[in-house]
Design brief:
alpha+beta; eleven-stranded mixed sheet; five-stranded antiparallel sheet; 16 helices; 24 strands; globular; disordered N terminus; disordered C terminus
Length: about 550
């Protein structure tokens, strides 16, 4: 029925566009009765639909409702889907090929590689036992910058990046019709990685603060003695300039007038960087959690001496300071059926396992029991100021003591009520989990926290508002979920459980968050209606006037 309606719509469009172009075109599409024709340059054919650039614009037409004639008409019986991917080596060169190969195995295809060079290869999906090819996926490896350049120039169908698209890239994508790269459908997140300072095994300096690391990167600290080690120069190792993880570090840890130390040794691959650091007792480098090799990770001190280890759990909750999403940028375009099936496969448990097997952090929600929160609770007590009373802490513990924290955490863009890129993806993912009933018959509480700027009462109000914004976003997405059955609610505890001190911008930002907690099923409360945040009040913890 749906296809018949679509065919009728195509015929109607062809009737409207009956006038022919005066000059020769690549293809001419004719209705099945031969009474209506449309000519244009063939943009693409996905095995089902034609995209044709005509004098009326680019039109998408159902191939089953038309005949095609002209030099550019595809071979309908021997159609092979074509896809090109460009970008970051670790993800595009390791993770995505693994995902395609597992997808092929699940769907009954053979997968073979045709290697042109270290940075250029093709994966061919074909029917089993020497059957015909169904798809060719070409990989062009480089940096995140390179991937975005190829994508925006439409020289690659997909881009892999370890950083979020810049404002200029987002604008260009909209101008060229690729889509809004702020939307989760265009900015898919394959998994997460952590950016880790690394040293050799025999280096006695085991921890470094965010402030110290920033100064090492800029060259202000150049001797191990300044970090508590011996009096020898620091041998700094970094990736090449276009690497996404390095750009993320630059934007988060260096000021506008700072640059990376010119003496740093540069590497084109994470594996080479890690290997060089592991062989030098005086080296310090930055790499991803997935590329540690034989080097040793240093602990990060986020302020007040509170240490952060780059565990998979800490990266998944984004409690680790330097967490990096793995972006797959996808245009507003209809892809061939086999590619659409691959996109659907990316949301499956099998794909999540591949992400973990390749050394990255998948986004499958985990549950952390309250009795595993001891270090966080101890830090909350130690850092509690005059604004946080014993009764505030007791109230928080009483609310959460029988619950389990879910690793799905929400944070906001700086100075805005807009969820950041990872959190926008988390909204969709948590909505899917709720609709699937994975949490069973347990209550769901969105728990908001604030930084310490401002009074306690105002911060609790802001934290609650933040939690309500997340609750509204998740329930709006989870259209098949009945919130009354599980007693979904929001709570705000202000500055009662800081993750770090507010002495740094990162410390304030990590404290401004919404956590997801599961608890025993209870009679639903009658909460205040969820509030839409004002432009600044949901993310900036300075008290805001009420409208």
């Amino acid at each position: 029925m749906r296809m018949n309606i679509l065919r009728a719509a195509v015929c109607a469009a062809l009737f409207v566009f009956t006038p022919l172009l005066a000059h020769s075109q690549d293809v001419t599409l004719s209705s099945l009765d031969g009474g209506v024709t449309l000519s244009g340059a063939l943009v693409s054919y996905d095995g089902e639909f034609y995209r044709v650039d005509t004098e009326y614009g680019v039109l998408t037409l159902d191939g089953s409702g038309v005949y095609c004639s002209g030099p550019a008409c595809p071979n309908l019986e021997g159609y092979v889907a074509e896809l090109s991917i460009a970008g970051a080596q670790g993800v595009a060169g390791i993770l995505l090929p693994s995902l395609f190969e597992r997808f092929a195995q699940k769907h009954g295809y053979d997968a073979a590689r045709e290697v042109t060079s270290d940075t250029d290869f093709t994966i061919v999906l074909a029917q089993k036992d020497g059957g015909t090819a169904v798809a060719r996926i070409q990989f062009d490896l480089g940096t995140s910058d390179y991937g975005m350049e190829q994508f925006l120039a439409e020289d690659a169908d997909l881009a892999v990046s370890l950083r979020e698209a810049t404002a200029a890239e987002q604008s260009k994508a909209i101008e060229t019709g690729l889509g809004n790269l702020n939307l989760a459908k265009n900015a898919r997140i394959l998994g997460l990685d952590g950016v880790i300072p690394i040293i050799a095994k025999n280096n006695p300096v085991a921890a470094i603060s965010l402030g110290q690391l920033s100064k090492v990167l800029s060259g202000e600290i150049s001797n191990w003695q300044e970090l508590g080690g011996i009096d020898v120069p620091i041998e700094l190792h970094l990736r090449d300039a276009g690497a996404g993880l390095l750009q993320k570090i630059s934007s988060e840890m260096l000021t506008l007038d700072q640059q990376f130390a010119p003496s740093a040794q540069r590497h084109t691959r994470d594996e080479a960087l890690s290997d060089a650091v592991s062989r030098s007792p005086f080296a310090l480098g930055l790499t991803g959690l997935s590329s540690l090799g034989n080097s040793v990770p240093m602990s990060l001190l986020g302020g007040c001496g509170f240490p952060f280890q780059a565990t998979h759990e800490a990266v998944k909750t984004e409690d680790y300071p330097l967490t990096a999403p793995l972006f797959l940028y996808v245009p507003n375009r209809r892809f061939p059926k086999v590619i659409r099936e691959f996109f659907a496969f990316l949301s499956t448990p099998e794909a999540a396992q591949i992400v973990a097997d390749d050394g990255f952090v998948n986004q499958t929600p985990l549950e952390i029991p309250m009795n595993s929160q001891g270090e966080r609770l101890a830090n909350a007590i130690l850092q509690a100021g005059n604004e946080t009373s014993l009764s505030d802490l007791q109230e928080m513990v009483a609310e959460l003591r029988d619950g389990q924290r879910v690793t799905t955490t929400f944070r906001f863009e700086p100075g805005s009520s807009r969820l950041d890129a990872q959190s926008r993806a988390n909204v969709e993912r948590l909505a899917e989990v709720l609709e699937a009933g994975i949490f069973g018959d347990r209550s769901v509480t969105f728990v908001g926290f604030s930084d310490g700027d401002g009074g306690a009462a105002a911060n609790r109000k802001i934290a609650l508002r933040r939690a309500q914004v997340v609750e509204t976003a998740v329930l709006r997405e989870a259209t098949l979920f009945d919130p009354n059955r599980m007693g979904v609610t929001s709570k705000g505890f202000g500055e009662a459980m800081p993750m770090a001190c507010d002495e740094t911008e990162w410390g304030s930002r990590v404290n401004r968050r919404v956590e997801t907690w599961l608890g025993p099923l209870r009679p639903p409360e009658q909460p205040e209606p969820p509030l839409e945040a004002s432009e600044n009040s949901a993310a900036t913890d300075s008290p805001q006037p009420e409208n």
